[in-house]
Amino acid sequence: MSQTTIPEALRGDVETLWTFHDMHHKLRACDVVVALGSHDLGVATHCAELYQADYAGRIVFTGANAPTTVERFPRGEAVHYREHAMTLGVPEDAILVEPDATNTGENITFTRQLLVEHGIRARSVLLVSRPYQQRRAFATCKKLWPEVEVTCSSAELPLDAYMDSIGDVDRVINMLVGDTQRITVYAERGFAIPQPVPAEVENAYQRLIQAGYTTRLL
């Protein structure tokens, strides 16, 4: 059975990783919002909020399916994100859908190609993801789309509120641990730019592995 609250003995370590993955970027107007598909429909909600606040006039939803999203989003993550955003008032003609990407690198590469196909030259993007995916998404984008200015954003929820919104504490902690590993491993494999991992983050990461949060490790 999944935890319903963060184990108190691990709270400090979970908060350390949570803070590390938030890029703490200040919102700014950009040419396009690029939303990375996942199990979290809050990504699409946040995109609608950004659009309505005039941070960008166009949204690209990108993502096919992962094994964890097929049941929830049977027509694909990007398609369901689009439909959700439209129920929140985003007009259809403000949205482009990239339905084929199956990882973050493809999200970036296929979105870039899609914009070119539509004659859109993006000099700046608002990159929207789950909160704990920000740092990895940023590093991937800077590697694969280096000329674009990237501002990362996610739904502005405190850690516990985000856990409640997902409804599965173990899943979120495992994802935090997995994304921390990927910061280093993906840079070593050439998928992303390198980023320093502070000692306190590395130590928190190792303790969470020792506590059994290993399902998202490579």
From TrEMBL:
GO CC: one term? plasma membrane
* Family matches, as Gene3D superfamilies: HUPs (3.40.50.620)
Q: What is this protein called?
A: YdcF family protein
Q: Which Pfam families match?
A: DUF218 (PF02698)
Question: Per the UniProt entry, what species is this protein from, by scientific name?
Answer: Allosaccharopolyspora coralli
Q: What InterPro entries has UniProt attached to this entry?
A: Cell_Envelope_Assoc, DUF218, Rossmann-like_a/b/a_fold
What residue stretches are annotated with the DUF218 domain? 31-147
